[in-house]
C-alpha cells in the first residue's frame, strides 16, 4: 500500500541518519580516547596494572574504548539493516537510504 511504502521509506531514512550520527559519535570518542592515552606507554606501566589509579588516564581510555566498541556494534547492525533494505531493489527505499545518509552527514 502507498502508506506502507511511505512509512518504509521514512524508517530507512531515519536508520540511515542514525547510522551517520553513530559514525560521527565514534569519531568523537576516538578523539577523546587518543587524548586520554598516557604520554608514556612503557613496559612497566603495561606490566604493573595494580599500581594504577582507577581515575587515571588509562582507566578513562579503556572506558572510551568500550564505548567505541558498542558504537561499532550498533553501526554494523544498522549498516546491514540498511543494506538489506536497499537490496530489496526498490527505488524509493534506495532513495530514502541515500537521502537519509546525506541528511545525517549534513547534520
TrEMBL record:
InterPro entries referenced in this protein's UniProt entry, alphabetically: Cop_transporter (IPR007274)
Membrane disposition: Multi-pass membrane protein
UniProt keywords, alphabetically: Copper, Copper transport, Ion transport, Membrane, Transmembrane, Transmembrane helix, Transport
Residue spans crossing the bilayer: 6-22
Any one Gene Ontology molecular-function term assigned to this protein's record: copper ion transmembrane transporter activity
GO cellular component, one term: late endosome membrane
The keyword Repressor appears for this protein: no
Subcellular location: Late endosome membrane; Membrane
Similarity field: Belongs to the copper transporter (Ctr) (TC 1.A.56) family. SLC31A subfamily.
Listed name of the protein: Copper transport protein
Organism in which the protein naturally occurs: Ramphastos sulfuratus
Amino acid at each position: 500500500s502507498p502508506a506502507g511504502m511511505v512509512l518504509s521509506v521514512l524508517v530507512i531514512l531515519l536508520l540511515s541518519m542514525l547510522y551517520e550520527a553513530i559514525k560521527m559519535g565514534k569519531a568523537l570518542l576516538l578523539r577523546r580516547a587518543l587524548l586520554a592515552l598516557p604520554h608514556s606507554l612503557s613496559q612497566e606501566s603495561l606490566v604493573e596494572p595494580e599500581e594504577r589509579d582507577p581515575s587515571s588516564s588509562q582507566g578513562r581510555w579503556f572506558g572510551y574504548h568500550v564505548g567505541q566498541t558498542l558504537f561499532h556494534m550498533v553501526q554494523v547492525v544498522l549498516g546491514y539493516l540498511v543494506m538489506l533494505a536497499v537490496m530489496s531493489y526498490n527505488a524509493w527505499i534506495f532513495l530514502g537510504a541515500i537521502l537519509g545518509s546525506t541528511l545525517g552527514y549534513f547534520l
